């Protein structure tokens, strides 16, 4: 889920590690935790990822909220584990418009947007081209800096860093297109 920092709206998106894709948990004493992994380890309020925000997306929950894939069905879901089972608030079962909601608190609101991005599109124009290769090379040569989205899209081999290996992979993608 991605938080639009200007409106507080939550949308589904592939995880990019961007700063607007952080889970914020409020404990009872309002100490904030930023969780960047797939599951949460502390119960509390799931809130907009901005300091001082009063926007609460989820009411108090006794259990941590987590995003997971179920091995039996292959479905993805947002929910929280319960002893011996799991309560799901939102589930994707495959196919177009196949998000199902159930069991969620009344104040849950889900807003979906199509995410148009592909690995290698570091200039964010929606397509792969030699312009992306040149921009990757300029980044590696420290001529330009990348934002979080560009770092994610430029890391084609998912190594955690953008290197000349990613440039080679992008050149191969473009040559084979």
UniProtKB/TrEMBL annotation:
Query: A Pfam family for this UniProt protein?
Result: Dockerin_1
An example molecular function term from Gene Ontology annotations: hydrolase activity, hydrolyzing O-glycosyl compounds
Q: Where is the Dockerin domain?
A: 115-177
Write down the superkingdom of origin.
Bacteria
Please name the CDD domains in this protein's record.
Dockerin_I
Q: Which GO terms describe its biological process?
A: polysaccharide catabolic process
InterPro entries assigned to the protein according to its UniProt record, in alphabetical order: Dockerin_1_rpt, Dockerin_dom, Dockerin_dom_sf
- The protein here is known as Dockerin type I repeat-containing protein
Record organism: Candidatus Scatavimonas merdigallinarum
């Amino acid at each position: 889920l991605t938080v639009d920092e200007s409106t507080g709206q939550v949308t589904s998106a592939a995880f990019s590690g961007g700063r607007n894709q952080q889970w914020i948990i409020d404990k009872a004493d309002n100490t904030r935790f930023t969780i960047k992994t797939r599951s949460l380890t502390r119960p509390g309020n799931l809130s907009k990822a901005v300091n001082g925000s009063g926007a609460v997306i989820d009411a108090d929950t006794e259990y941590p909220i987590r995003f997971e894939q179920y091995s039996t069905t292959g479905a993805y879901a947002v929910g929280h584990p319960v002893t011996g089972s799991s309560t799901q608030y939102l589930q994707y079962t495959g196919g177009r418009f196949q998000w199902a909601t159930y069991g969620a608190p009344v104040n849950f609101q889900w807003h979906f947007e199509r995410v148009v991005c592909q690995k290698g599109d570091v200039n964010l124009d929606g397509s792969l081209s030699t312009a992306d290769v040149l921009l990757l090379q300029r980044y590696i040569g420290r001529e330009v800096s990348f934002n979080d989205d560009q770092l994610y899209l430029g890391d084609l081999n998912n190594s955690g860093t953008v290197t000349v290996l990613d440039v080679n992979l992008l050149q191969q993608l473009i040559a084979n297109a």
